[in-house]
Design brief:
- This protein is mainly α.
- The protein has a domain of about 60 residues: Orthogonal Bundle (Helix Hairpins).
- About 60% of the residues lie in helices and about 0% in strands.
- The chain contains 6 helices and no strands.
- It is elongated, with a radius of gyration of 40 Å.
- About 0% of the residues are buried.
Length: about 160
């Protein structure tokens, strides 16, 4: 509406637009129609009140009088972490390290294997076994139970 619109023109425009945006008479989705109708009601409330309309018109004149602000890069919303946030991160890191040490320590105390080749690895890359149970060139002892049992079976106590 132009700033010189009469109250009758405002009312006619409001009635015409309210038929377009009222949730009961529009084809728009209900949430969109409700929001648009509420905005229309707020605009009509401001423009139909002479004092509120005068304030609104003054603000429009001031905004048009101001030079256009140059568009710059968006301002970063990052900020420095507070002391409490650093403390929480420190506690989180300590909890992570402690849980890893505790898990590895419990596994080691129970005698669990620390490194075990996946079952599919030995199927893809079969390595010939030496008599003492070591793979050639690796210096590692095979991790199968049969190799351990064979080593115990070969050891016979002397008389």
């Amino acid at each position: 509406m132009p700033p010189t619109a009469s109250p009758q023109q405002l009312r006619q425009s409001f009635r015409r637009l309210s038929k377009c945006y009222h949730p009961d008479t529009t084809t728009l989705p209900a949430p969109v129609a409700e929001q648009a109708f509420q905005q229309l009601q707020r605009a009509y409330a401001v423009l139909s009140d002479p004092q509120a309309r005068q304030l609104y018109d003054e603000r429009l004149r001031l905004m048009r009088a101001l030079p256009a602000l140059p568009r710059s890069a968006p301002v970063s919303l990052r900020r420095a972490l507070s002391g409490g946030e650093w403390f929480a991160l420190l506690l989180l890191a300590l909890a992570l390290v402690l849980s890893l040490v505790l898990g590895i320590g419990v596994a080691w105390a129970r005698g669990a294997e620390m490194m075990r080749w996946p079952s599919w690895w030995t199927e893809l890359h079969p390595a010939p076994m030496l008599q003492d149970g070591a793979s050639p060139g690796t210096g590692m002892v095979a991790s199968s139970p049969s190799a351990t049992q064979m080593a115990d079976a070969d050891h016979v106590p002397s008389p």
